[in-house]
Amino acid sequence: ASTDGIPLHGMLDPDILMRMMANGGVPRRRAQAAMDRICRSAERYYFRHVPDLRRKTCPGVRRLLYRLRRKGAATGLVTGNLTRIGWKKLERASLAQYFQFGIFGEIAPTRTELVRLALRYAQSHGWVNGQTRRVLIGDTPNDIEAARANGVETVAVATGLCSLRELQACSPTLCVRDLTDPVVREWLKAATANAGGRAAIRASAGKGKAPGRLP
Questions:
Q1: What are the distances in angstroms from CA 191 to CA 133, 140, 155, 211?
Q2: Is the pTM of this model over 0.85?
Q3: Counting Cβ atoms within 10 Å, is residue 144 exposed (0-12), middle (13-18) or buried (19+)?
Q4: HEC profile of 166-193
Q5: What is the pLDDT of residues 105-133, one digit of tens each?
Q6: Any alpha helices (H) in the chain, and if so which ranges?
Q7: 139: nearest Cα among 56, 35, 39, 215
Q8: Helix, strand, or coil here: 206?
């Protein structure tokens, strides 16, 4: 089975694996029954082959996460990756230390539900409340749609496969080429100031231009 013909960008890993099985002629029921084993196999494969990703993080992400941590913002990862792959990707990029929690692709069937679960988790730990500004940073229309469905502001970054124009067409709160844009710093500075420094920022790790690229 391969990923040929599958629109990977913005998809959840379990959905990608199901499409791969279908392309390989595996009946849907059989693939569903074996999904746990397939996911574990995918994780083992990734662990064996994942490269050093420290030079593949998108422009501005490390500095932004550092500043958010200093401001006391709650930061969580919402990603379509499987749990062990998602954390390993952050570890290999030297970014894991910036995230307090993660919600991953096998936990819920849609990205909208992943964002909902992330909000619920943050609320249960007292990191956000009704006065907190909640922001999702992502690089696909699916991220923008999921955030909007949950009443969350969005910073769309054109560091993945979607162009700036495509992302702007989805009407995110803010849309930039990458996180080095001064507008991002000023906008998030205002967001954390208005929220008493406790804005919850969720970076969605999409499948960008290079393997393991993070928004």
A1: 7, 22, 12, 31
A2: yes
A3: buried
A4: HHHCCCCCEEECCCCCHHHHHHHHHHHH
A5: 999 999 999 999 999 999 999 988 888 88
A6: 13-23, 28-33, 35-49, 61-70, 83-92, 111-124, 141-149, 164-168, 182-194
A7: 215
A8: coil
